[in-house]
Amino acid sequence: MGKIYPAIDHPLAEWIKAQHVFFVATAPLAANGHINCSPKGGQSLRIIDPLTVIYQDLTGSGIETVAHIRENSRIVIMFCAFEGPPRIVRLHGQAEVLRADHSNFASLLKHFPVNLGTRAIIRVKVKRIADSCGMGVPLYRYQKDRDALDKWAQAKGRTQLQEYRKQKNTLSIDGLLGIAE
To answer: How close are the terminal C-alpha atoms of the chain, in Å?
Structure first.
């Protein structure tokens, strides 16, 4: 039942846009390093072209994804249908971390709502697109996006967010470089 796609075509793009959550998985090069899988809100991902996606990386308690991308650029983004027909889609690719000082950051940031907690944009050059049945994925009903992270970032403000990133986002749990303000 699985299918490999040469690119993100219009029907697939529409299906991806309809998903409310996606998962990002990365791993360090070290065999004893920690593999990471992070859930993300669906409204933080944009399809730029048939082989490029970006997502808004928001300030959080960890920095594993960014650290792994900086080390080796490998990434997979997974979408699951929690409503409607069963389906799983994985976008495998090479990612890069774009910080505010990157020449493309400002133009790509315009694709997203303003969010004080934005620490980077992750740009993924998609190398493999595959779907599978998803029959084992349970059905859930979407209620609404959470606003707790946005409120937390607003309450901290720009200066305290920078300090928080210095404390929590400089190194990964395996000691890889994350984001140093």
So the answer is: 46
What is the share, in percent, of the chain residues with pLDDT greater than 70?
99
**pLDDT, tens digit (0-9, with 9 covering 90-100), for 99-112:** 999 999 999 999 99
Nearest Cα residue to 17 out of 106, 110, 79: 79
- Give which of 157, 102, 103, 23 is closest to 165, Cα–Cα: 157
Any domain includes 175 = no
**Amino acid in the structure at residue 68:** H
22's tokens: 């996606």
* 173 within some domain: no
Q: Is the pTM of this model over 0.85?
A: yes
Q: What is the DSSP string of the chain?
A: --EEESS--HHHHHHHHH-SEEEEEE--SSTTSPPEEEEEEGGGEEEEETTEEEEEEE--S--HHHHHHHHH-EEEEEEE-SSSS--EEEEEEEEEEE-TTSTTHHHHHTTS---TTEEEEEEEEEEEEEEE--TTSPP--------HHHHHHHHHHHHHHHHHHHHHSSB-TTS-B----
Tell me the two tokens of residue 122. 């992750």
**Which one, of 161, 68, 73, lies nearest residue 119 by Cα?**
161
- Residue 113 is part of a domain; what is its CATH number? 2.30.110.10
